[in-house]
Amino acid sequence: MDSTSKKKNSAGAYSKTQVFTASKEALLLMLYDAAIRFIRKAILATTEKNSSEKSLYIGKTMNIVTELQATLNHQAEAQIAGQLEGLYGFVQDRLLKAARDNEVSSLEEALSIFTTLRNAWDEAIQSLKPKPTVEPK
Predict the structure, then answer these.
(1) pLDDT reported for residue 2
(2) Is 98 exposed, middle or buried (0-12, 13-18, 19+ CB in 10 A)?
(3) What is the 3-state secondary structure (H, E, C) of the chain?
(4) Is the pLDDT of residue 14 over 50?
(5) CATH C-level class of 23-127
(6) Which long-range contacts (CB under 8 A, 24 or more apart) does 53-56 make?
(7) Interval 34-52 mean pLDDT
(8) Residue 96 CB neighbours (<10 A)
């Protein structure tokens, strides 16, 4: 095994460990981060007219969107789940339009939505973390 293969295997093992030990909140952010990364790669592939790469990264993003939809809890928070369902559906529509019509603008719309959602979730997660208390002197 060459050093490049060893590095890839080590990185893959590290990523798996991160996923298996992460909190639900961290997993959610990881999914958004991956989707954002894949959409950016799809944008690049589209501008370079590389249809196989574009299809690969749009497909990976679609898989993440499907996973995010499957994890929505409509019973606990019906209103939020319904709104997210609508946004995820819109992102899927944009991804399909980009795949069909080679439209960077559709990918940019999906990227904007996912970036906004990722930042909002990160902010919400941070706000729920206990604040360190400062003891009086």
Answers:
(1) 62
(2) buried
(3) CCHHHHHHHHHHHHHHHHHHHCCHHHHHHHHHHHHHHHHHHHHHHHHCCCHHHHHHHHHHHHHHHHHHHHCCCCCCCHHHHHHHHHHHHHHHHHHHHHHHHCCHHHHHHHHHHHHHHHHHHHHHHHHHCCCCCCCCC
(4) no
(5) mainly alpha
(6) 54/98, 54/99, 54/102, 55/99
(7) 98
(8) 13
Using an 8 Å Cβ cutoff, are 113 and 95 in contact? no
Domain map of the chain by residue range?
23-127
pLDDT, position 134: 67
Asked if pLDDT for residue 15 goes beyond 80, the answer is no
**Token pair recorded at residue 62:** 């679609």
Tokens of 34: 């991956």
Are 72 and 81 in contact by the 8 Å Cβ rule? The answer is yes
Residue with tokens 């319904």: 82
